[in-house]
Every structure is written in structure tokens, then in C-alpha cells.
């Protein structure tokens, strides 16, 4: 193989042009974000709300359901200038089988057109729901690459952070394989 052929699948970017933005509550998605950063470099950015969600699980579930129903986009405290970034990883938990409202806010108020967008997700075992589809919809002019999802916590059952020990090793390997398959 020639050098050109070897590189056909390579994502042509440098760490200073990579942003890893994520929403997290119990830090599972954050752990995946850090694994991505360990492999490709880039800048980590946690999405924070102007008004944080309630600590109580039932209360946040109710509030998110209400926001999803009414299409409310909760204002973010986090502001970022995306102009220097070419590749944007967007990480989030599944909430109510959807993309969490703060991530909808982020994708709504920032222009990601012409950029490469790569979603990643943790969930309680019910999958990504409509979240990846919604990323596609909210980034119509972006080059969206295959996402990654894994099982995280099950807060409903009191299972919060799980990215340690064997699980952490397993996810870390999967994340590496996924990033390799994308050409990183
Ligand atoms: C408000 C809320 C709604 C959730 N809805 C779902 C869901 O619909 N499906 C699912 O599999 N997990 C659901 N979960 C569980 C989270 O997706 C899972 O615990 C995830 O790993 C949390 O990521 P984090 O630790 O980065 O916050 C929900 C969690 C919360 C707090």
C-alpha cells in the first residue's frame, strides 16, 4: 500500500482543532470524554446550565420530561467560540430516550456547519433512543461520523458512577477501537 492509501480513513486534524464537549450528571459521560481526550487530545468542555437541575432524581426526570414536551431549551452558562475547531465530539447521557435539553440548546445556539461532529453517549441500558437522530437533525450541514454508546449508570436504581475497574478497561478499549475505525 502507498502512504496515500494507508491514510484514506484518517481524520485530517490536529489536537488544537478538536473540541470534546459533553453533558454529564453522574460523570459516566465525562469519563468517556476523558478517554477520547487521552487518545486524540483536544479540549474538554463540560456543558453547565445557568440554573442547575435539581439533585433529586424524580425532580430532574419530571423537569426534563416537561422541557422535552414544551420544547424548552434551558439556557447554558457555558459559552464557547467554535471557530478554531474542526472536529467536535458531542457527548451526553440518554435522558427520557432523547437528546438532553441542554445539548439541544448547545446545538441550537452554535453553528457547527462545515465541521465534523461525532456523538457519544452513555445510558442506563435502554440505548441512545432518538438522541443520535436529533444530533443529525440539529447539525444538517455537518459531517457526522459514527457515534459510540455504552451502558453507564442506572440512577433510578441508585447506580451512579460505573466507569472504574473492569468496566473502565472494557470501555476504554472500545473507545480506542471506535476512534481507530474513524481514522484517529
Ligand atoms: C433525567 C434522566 C433521564 C434518564 N433517562 C434515561 C433513558 O431514557 N434511558 C436510559 O437508558 N437511561 C436514562 N437515564 C440514565 C442515564 O442515561 C445514565 O445513567 C447515564 O450513564 C448517565 O450519564 P452521566 O453519568 O454522564 O450523567 C436517565 C438519567 C436521568 C438523570
From TrEMBL:
Sorted UniProt keywords: Signal
SUPFAM superfamilies noted in UniProt: Flavoproteins
Single annotated GO MF: FMN binding
Positions of the Flavodoxin-like domain: 18-183
Record carries keyword Signal: yes
UniProt cross-references to InterPro entries, sorted A to Z: Flavodoxin/NO_synth (IPR008254), Flavoprotein-like_sf (IPR029039)
Entry keyword Magnesium: no
Superkingdom of this protein's organism: Bacteria
One matching Pfam family: Flavodoxin_4
PANTHER family per the UniProt record, alphabetical: EXPORTED PROTEIN-RELATED (PTHR39201), FLAVODOXIN-LIKE DOMAIN-CONTAINING PROTEIN (PTHR39201:SF1)
Protein's name in the database: Flavodoxin
Amino acid at each position: 500500500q502507498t502512504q496515500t492509501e494507508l491514510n484514506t480513513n484518517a481524520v485530517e486534524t490536529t489536537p488544537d482543532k478538536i473540541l470534546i464537549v459533553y453533558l454529564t450528571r453522574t460523570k459516566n459521560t465525562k469519563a468517556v470524554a476523558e478517554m477520547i481526550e487521552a487518545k486524540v487530545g483536544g479540549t474538554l468542555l463540560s456543558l453547565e446550565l445557568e440554573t442547575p437541575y435539581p439533585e433529586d432524581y424524580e425532580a430532574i426526570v419530571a423537569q426534563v420530561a416537561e422541557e422535552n414536551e414544551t420544547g424548552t431549551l434551558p439556557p447554558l452558562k457555558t459559552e464557547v467560540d467554535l471557530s478554531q475547531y474542526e472536529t467536535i465530539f458531542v457527548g451526553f447521557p440518554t435522558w427520557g430516550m432523547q437528546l438532553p435539553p441542554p445539548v439541544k440548546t448547545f446545538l441550537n445556539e452554535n453553528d457547527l456547519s462545515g465541521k465534523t461532529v461525532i456523538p457519544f453517549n452513555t445510558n442506563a441500558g435502554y440505548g441512545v433512543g432518538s438522541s443520535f437522530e436529533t444530533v443529525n437533525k440539529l447539525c444538517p450541514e455537518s459531517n457526522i461520523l459514527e457515534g459510540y454508546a455504552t451502558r453507564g449508570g442506572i440512577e433510578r436504581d441508585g447506580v451512579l458512577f460505573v466507569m472504574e475497574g473492569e468496566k473502565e478497561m472494557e470501555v476504554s478499549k472500545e473507545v480506542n477501537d471506535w476512534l481507530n475505525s474513524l481514522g484517529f
